[in-house]
Structure formats: structure tokens, C-alpha cells
Automatic annotation (TrEMBL):
This is Uncharacterized protein. The keyword Hydrolase does not apply. It is a single-pass membrane protein. Keywords: Membrane, Transmembrane, Transmembrane helix. It is found in: Membrane. It comes from Lamprobacter modestohalophilus.
Length: 154
């Protein structure tokens, strides 16, 4: 892929990501049925955690997620070093477990759904650890971020 095509591809991807973030922030959930859960946040499934943990984790409200998920994604992107070559797979879904204050718990970042490229998946995991602590709310609003799934696109 030539430099010009790469620039245009990256430019369009950034514009699309920004547009989706704005739509999410301003409550346009009804305009994108079925797409927004893929934008960046989902509650972890019971199969991705022990049964005991599934009873303690709660899904965040839309308001809390719309405020904090874009900040978390942006923080991770600042530390994300993409592997050589181009990425043309699916966005990986990553389960992240945090301590209060946003510190990523050691050995608690796991790929739930692979992008299809193990090197790309590992670059996402590395970026999450490198970005620790992540920006998260404090108090009761933090609880949904104790154990959550995150979708990251380049």
C-alpha cells in the first residue's frame, strides 16, 4: 500500500472513530442499532469469568460508559505500538480487570475475541498494561470498570 493510500485509510478511520464517539456521547444510540456495543464497551460474559465473579460485576450505565470509555480508549491508543504490516482483521475484544484508581491488575488482561492476528492482539494487551493507570471514575461509578470488556480499533 502506497503512502498516499495509507494516509487516506488512516484519516478515514480516525474520522469514523471520532464520529462514532460523538454519536455515542450525544445519545444517538437509536441511530446505530447493533453497532454501539462494538464501539468500545460491553459487559463481560459469564463464560469469560468465574461464576462467583459474574455475580459481583455490573454493567455500567450508558452515561458512565459514554463519559469514560472514550477516555480509556484514547489513553490506550497513546501507548499502542502496532505491529509491522497492515491490519485488516476484526477488532479484538479484550477483558480488562482494574483496581480502584485505574491500575490494570497483573495478568488480568485477556483476549476474549481475537482479531485473527496474534501479533496485533498482543500489541493491544501490551498497550493496555503500558497505559496503566487508566482514567476511571471513583466511588460507586468505578464498580463497572473493575471487570469489563473493551473493543479497540486502530
Amino acid at each position: 500500500m502506497g503512502t498516499g493510500k495509507l494516509f487516506v485509510t488512516v484519516f478515514v478511520a480516525v474520522l469514523l472513530a471520532n464520529a462514532l464517539t460523538v454519536l455515542m456521547l450525544f445519545g444517538a444510540r437509536g441511530l446505530l442499532p447493533g453497532l454501539l456495543p462494538d464501539v468500545g464497551w460491553s459487559a463481560p460474559s459469564a463464560s469469560s469469568r468465574d461464576a462467583a465473579e459474574s455475580s459481583t460485576s455490573t454493567a455500567p450505565s450508558e452515561e458512565i460508559a459514554s463519559r469514560w470509555v472514550p477516555a480509556i480508549q484514547e489513553r490506550i491508543r497513546q501507548f499502542w505500538v502496532h505491529p509491522a504490516g497492515t491490519w485488516e482483521g476484526n477488532a479484538p475484544v479484550v477483558n480488562v480487570q482494574l483496581e480502584p484508581g485505574g491500575k490494570v491488575i497483573t495478568n488480568q488482561v485477556q483476549i476474549v475475541t481475537s482479531s485473527g492476528n496474534p501479533m496485533f492482539d498482543q500489541s493491544v494487551v501490551n498497550a493496555i498494561y503500558d497505559a496503566s493507570p487508566l482514567p476511571v471514575p471513583s466511588g460507586p461509578d468505578f464498580e463497572p470498570f473493575r471487570d469489563f470488556n473493551l473493543v479497540l480499533r486502530p
